[in-house]
Amino acid sequence: MQTNETWILKVLRAKVGILVYAIAALALTACSTPNEDTVALGHVAAQSNTSPPTSQGINFFDGSFEDALVLAAQSEKMVFVDVYTIWCGPCVVMQETVFPLPEVGEFFNARFVNYKLDAENEEQDGPELEARFDIEAYPTYLILDHNGNELHRASSALPSDQFISMVSRMLGESESAFEEMQKRYDSGERSTEFIRQYLLDATVELSLRELNNQDIDSVRAYYEEGEKYKTIASEYFASRPLLDLINETDIQLVMHFCTGDPRGEEIVEFLIDNYDEVLAVSSEAAMSQLILEATLTSAAKTAQAGDEKFTEYIDALDSYPLSKAVDYERNRDPNSRMLPEKLRFSWETPYLLARKDFDGLIEVYEGRFEKWGDATTATHYSSAASKIILSEESVHRKVALEYAERGYELDQDDPFVVATYVSALMGVERKGDAQSIVEEYRTGLTDSNIDQDNLRIFTILIPKELKETSKKPSVVE
């Protein structure tokens, strides 16, 4: 179980500050780290043997990453790596609907040693490899040489033809014709067949677009390009009778551009109302992710606005056909963050916080801590404290300090935990103690990259008046 703030730290460690824009940009086609209170973690570790060759779909190597590199050297192939997480919706769709296709397997098996990397599986060295390759969204596809050097990367969920086209482009086996397609679009061509192909080609273009997360202009340009294609897709969908969209190509486009749209959007409600008909030309994986993401988007928006309607969106998952999406997801991952009970858990506290119901928040957290007992972590306590400290009532701030102190006692290395304790001390006007904690944390850090990243995170999180004391001077040789 991980909290909001654990994921915030993960984001900040990847690219402090700027990555939040990249997350928005990639949301059209890929998963970034989630921001609910709970995330299902844990996965069956990779086995140490190789699976037998198969003509059906991509044949993924089952050994270690290092062994995959050895096999690639022996077979004189490159390595294709699918970097995923078990909670990533687009990852699920790719793994269950695209990777198993014979034509996809024929293309990939001939060129690569293929390897699946669960970025959160420590037994697979997932977090270490994620950091090594600077993974910022899921799925991310890497093409490596047999020494593990990165040659190419892309990040997107795509239909099979576009997926093959994307990798073919990465390998230099084919070239883009999108410039000509763009000219035709700009000249006013709008036939159904042309717009379909234009949008399909656009998904490949965007997936191959280089993104420099250190450069806010690069991030903004990427986001704006994605929004441009989404707007064109929306105009295309609106130009056609909705029933005419129930065909394989158009539903692929709908799933690509509309997954993540909230409940209430006309096309989302249309898909739900025609669930079985759409399923006939799509897949359970894609339908499930679209419905659950729409529910998540709506529940999150209303909960954060303090609107109790957030429970109505979640309760609707108990009724047909939405219950089919839940059944599919529960069978796929019994601990999925998208299940109704997890959504209620995740958005109960943001709802109470939005309503400034701090007594309600304390009651909820007391119940959770009692239930979790010794399994309650430093991050759990700090997460609770970071919300309750926003109250202006001294009685609430004292509770926040109590929670923050418990977290600090459990973990004095995590920058979020320490920064929360500092903020809680400031909240009860104990500035001297807060300054001491800041100095103690600062002087305990080394010049390693990890510690310097933690220092930057810590400096962002602590109160403004203490930031100067958290800056560690550079070493002058």
Describe the structure.
The chain is mostly helical. The protein folds into three domains: 4-164, Glutaredoxin (3-Layer(aba) Sandwich); 257-346, no CATH class; 357-470, Serine Threonine Protein Phosphatase 5, Tetratricopeptide repeat, CATH 1.25.40. It contains 23 helices and five strands. The protein has helices at 4-14, 19-26, 65-75, 89-98, 102-111, 126-132, 160-171, 178-186, 192-208, 216-238, 248-258, 266-273, 275-279, 284-304, 310-315, 322-332, 340-354, 358-372, 378-388, 394-410, 415-427, 431-443, 449-461; strands spanning 60-61, 78-84, 112-118, 140-144, 150-154. The chain has a five-stranded mixed β-sheet with strand order 1-3-2-4-5, with helices on both faces. The longest helix has 23 residues, at 216-238. The protein is globular. The model is unreliable at 1-29, 33-54 and 473-477 (pLDDT under 50).
Topology:
Blueprint: H1 4-14, H2 19-26, E1 60-61, H3 65-75, E2 78-84, H4 89-98, H5 102-111, E3 112-118, H6 126-132, E4 140-144, E5 150-154, H7 160-171, H8 178-186, H9 192-208, H10 216-238, H11 248-258, H12 266-273, H13 275-279, H14 284-304, H15 310-315, H16 322-332, H17 340-354, H18 358-372, H19 378-388, H20 394-410, H21 415-427, H22 431-443, H23 449-461
Parallel strand pairs: 1-3, 2-3
Antiparallel strand pairs: 2-4, 4-5
Helix pairs in contact: 2-10, 4-14, 5-7, 7-9, 8-9, 9-10, 10-11, 14-16, 14-17, 18-19, 19-20, 19-21, 20-21, 21-22, 21-23
